[in-house]
Amino acid sequence: xxxxxxxxxxxxxxxxxxxxxxxxxxxxxxxxxxxxxxxxxxxxxxxxxxxxxxxxxxxxxxxxxxxxxxxxxxxxxxxxxxxxxxxxxxxxxxxxxxxxxxxxxxxxxxxxxxxxxxxxxxxxxxxxxxxxxxxxxxxxxxxxxxxxxxxxxxxxxxxxxxxxxxxxxxxxxxxxxxxxxxxxxxxxxxxxxxxxxxxxxxxxxxxxxxxxxxxxxxxxxxxxxxxxxxxxxxxxxxxxxxxxxxxxxxxxxxxxxxxxxxxxxxxxxxxxxxxxxxxxxxxxxxxxxxxxxxxxxxxxxxxxxxxxxxxxxxxxxxxxxxxxxxxxxxxxxxxxxxxxxxxxxxxxxxxxxxxxxxxxxxxxxxxxxxxxxxxxxxxxxxxxxxxxxxxxxxxxxxxxxxxxxx
Length: 406
Fold this sequence. Notes:
Largest sheet: 6 strands, mixed, barrel
Radius of gyration: 32 Å
Shape: elongated
Oligomer: single chain
């Protein structure tokens, strides 16, 4: 094995009798390096967008959320007593959430009205995401509304306007009636702020005081959810399991991932899809190794004959060229990882590549997050592709050009 590796290294760096072999070997290394570099850069950018989305959702989503499994609303008293006794729970907030029709001037749009109490700002960082106006829900016995940016755009709302928003909601406690006045309840509220978090949230949500939401939807003392903020050093999984066990099957306790399970699974699927596509492109680029090894075997027929006469076995001969192909992959992979890291680091540090339409997004440049696990996965993948690109062709080529001739 050591002899095969030694000869393979000598073949790689030595000058061949045909210069085209050196050129093809160099092209093979460059191809592997470019493919590896592309994997590093694109996955790092994907990690950046993934991290950005999670950080934005964290400004709106609680650490844990309790909802009912049967029905939509429940009495919160017994649950709040449990939360007061649970170690690791820092804050909790009662929530009433329902869909309603918002009308502002001549425009209207369906929205999710989320009624929250005064403790809600301690649960999330929503007050830090205000892009226009102020985060005020209740002042001087007067309720106010804060809505998402896209929702305000669809309604044509701006904070310097003083006209209130009309909210129309179906009466929950009334019998079905063809009379709109009996079937629909209408309330008026003044919007005072606009937040910007994530398009899915900005497009749907409007925040109001929980007392206003209870009156609008006829919920009285009930809630649709309880949102929980945990202490920084708390074990989320342990507390989630503890609360779920005490509440039983009549309630669901959801962590941040479970609250947006579909979105997070989509992100992971996209990442693996990108990885597989780029790996396939890298596999095609590795076909240059086949051409390089084929010409090298033909060029080194005399050396192979000498090694055979000295007692070298066919597996030893094949290992020489197998190591040759693997060395090409290793050099290309290392160069690709280095240059990919440098590009990602420069973008992360200096933000050279800007997003189109810069100024209209939360960020101005492509976000980048460098994960060590990605580098390890990429390196293993490149080496595996390099081995496969060399192993089968070498068996075929050596059988055809060496064994047959002998």
